[in-house]
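Q: Could you fold this chain for me?
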Amino acid sequence: MNAVGKNLKQLRQREKLTQDALAERLHVTRQAVSSWETGKTAPDVETLMALAEALEVDVRALIYGPEVVAEGGYP
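A: Sure. Below is the predicted structure, expressed as structure tokens.
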């Protein structure tokens, strides 16, 4: 699992969303969300922005992790 996928899964679960529920918010398939979380594929920049909006986080939380962003430790 890549960093974005791991962070995506963590943030999705924190919001108590299923993959299906997140997929509906983004108008994509559940399989797309699963592929991002497992690292089989990576969301493009536009999708990263939509994910951040759907999860109500800064896009950097998806890239660097919510803990790093909360501590101000991102580059």
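A (continued): The chain has a mean pLDDT of 91.
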